[in-house]
Amino acid sequence: MKVQVIRSNRKTIGLEVRADESVILRAPQWLSEKELDEWIGEHAYWIEEKVKQMRQRNSGFLAFFISGICVISSGIVVSLLQEMYGFEYGMTGTLLSLMSIGNLISGFVTGVLPGKIGTRKTVAILTSGYAIGYLCMGLSGLMVLLMLSFFLLGIAKGCTLNTCTILVGDNSANRTKGMNIMHSCYATGALLCPFLVAFAAKKGALVPLFILAAAGLLMWLIFLSAPMEGKRKTKEKTTDWSFLKSKKFWLLTGLLFCQNAAEFSVNGWMVTYFKDSGIISGMLSTYTVTVMWTATLIARMLIAFVFPIKNAYSAMIKMGAGCIVFYLGMMMAGSQIPAILLLFAFAFAMAGMNPTAVASAGRMTSAASMGIMLPAASSGAIIMPWVTGIISQYAGLSVGMASNIVPCAGLLVFAVLVKRVSEEE
After folding, report:
1. Mutual orientation of helices 207-225 and 44-85 as an angle, nearest 10°?
2. CB of 149 within 8 A of CB of 98?
3. Sign of torsion, CA 290 291 292 294?
4. Number of H helices, E strands in the chain
5. Which of 14, 144, 171, 329 would give a disulfide with 26, using CB separation of 3.0 to 4.6 Å?
6. By CB neighbour count within 10 A (0-12 exposed, 13-18 middle, 19+ buried), where does 198 fall?
C-alpha cells in the first residue's frame, strides 16, 4: 500500500482516499517519521478498507458504462438482425421481451444465489450473458439461438444493475450523488453505442456483434477484479414486510411498470420505426438512440446538480404530462427534424421519472421492498415490446408504435394517485 505524505503547519493527521484509489496523508511538520509509520501501521486495516471501497465503487461506474453500451445496442442489433434474416415484427418484439424476461429472472436470482455460492461466483456466472449472447448472435442466425441470446443479455443486464447498485451505493459518501453518477455512466455508454455499431458495421454486418461480445467480456473481467464477498456467514435481521400493505408502494410500483413499459418499448422499437417509416433513412436512424440518451443524460445531471427537485409528487405529474404531449407529437411528425426534436423532448421528460419514483418510496426503501418493486415494475419492459410487435404485425408499425401512448398515460394517472395518497398520509 503506497501512501503519499504531505506535511504542513497543522495540528492533526488527515487521511484522504481519492477517486483514483491513491492515498494522501496530511501530517504536521513536527511529527517524526517513526511516529508517522506507527500511525500508518495502526490504521493500515482502515486505510485498506477505504481503498477497497473506492475500488468497488469505481468498478461499478466502469461496469455500468459498458452495460449501457451492451443494453442499448440491443435495440439497434435487433433491427440489423431483422433486416439480415427477414423475420416479422412479432419476432422482433419477442426477442426484446425475452431480454426483459431474463432481466426479471436475474433480479430475483441475484438476491438469492449469493447466499448459496457467494457474490463473486454469482456475478461471474450471470454477467457472462453479454459476451456469450452477442457471440452466439454473431455465430448463427438460428432463431432458437437468437432467442436464447437475448434472454442471456437480459440475465446479464439484471445482475449488472443489482451488482453495480451495491458496489456504488454502499461505497459512496453521498449515496444520491453516487447513484446519479452511476446512471450517468450508463447514459454515456448508451450515447456511444450507435457510433460503435455504425463504425463496426462498415467492417462487416456481423462485426458489431463480435465487438459487443468483446465489450461484454471486458465488463466480466472488471467484475472479476473487483473485491467482492463470499458466502454470507450471518443471518440477516427479520425482514419488515409492512410495505406490502401500503397503497403508496403499489402505486409507485404501477408507475414504474408504466415507465419501464414506455422506455424499453420506445428504445427497442424506435430505430426500426424510423427506418421502416422512411422518416429517418438508413444508418442515420440508429443515431436516434444517441438523441434519446443525450436528453436522458442532460436531464439527470441537471436534476442531480443544478435544479434539484423540491416536490417529487408534483414533478412526476409534470413529467407524465410531458411524456404524453411529446410522444403524441413525435407520432404525428412526418419529417426528420421535428421527429428528432420531439424524441429529445420525450426522453428529457421521462429521464427523471424512475429515480424520482424510487426516491419517493422514502422509508419503504429496503432490500425486500426493492426486490419486489423493481422486478415487478420491470415486467412492463417484458409486456410492452411484445404488444407493440404483435400490433405492428397485424395493424402496421405506426399503430404499434402509437400503442406506447397507453403506458405514457399510465405515468400521469399513477403520478396523480401517488400525490393524492401521499397527501392523505
Report:
1. 160
2. no
3. positive
4. 17, 3
5. 14
6. middle
Sequence-distant (≥ 6) Cβ neighbours of residue 12 within 8 angstroms = 28
Whether the pTM exceeds 0.85: the reply is no
The dihedral over CA atoms of 34, 40, 42, 47, expressed in degrees to the nearest 10, equals 180
Residue range 313-360, pLDDT digits in tens = 999 999 999 999 999 999 999 888 898 999 999 999 998 888 788 767
Q: Find cell 493527521 and name the residue.
A: 13
Cβ proximity of 71 and 93 under 8 Å: no
Q: Which helix (H) or strand (E) holds 16?
A: strand 14-17
Residue pointed to by grid coordinates 509509520: 37
Cell of 360: 419517493
Q: How far apart are the first and last CA of the chain?
A: 52
271 contacts: CB under 8 Å, gap ≥ 6: 75, 76, 79, 285, 286, 288, 289
Number of neighbouring beta carbons within 10 Å of residue 62: 18
- The three cell numbers locating residue 249: 408502494
Other C-beta atoms lying within 10 Å of the C-beta of residue 298: 16
Task: Specify whether the CB–CB gap between 48 and 2 falls below 8 A.
Answer: no
Measured CA to CA, the distance from residue 81 to residue 68 in angstroms comes to 20
Q: Are 382 and 101 in contact (CB under 8 A)?
A: yes
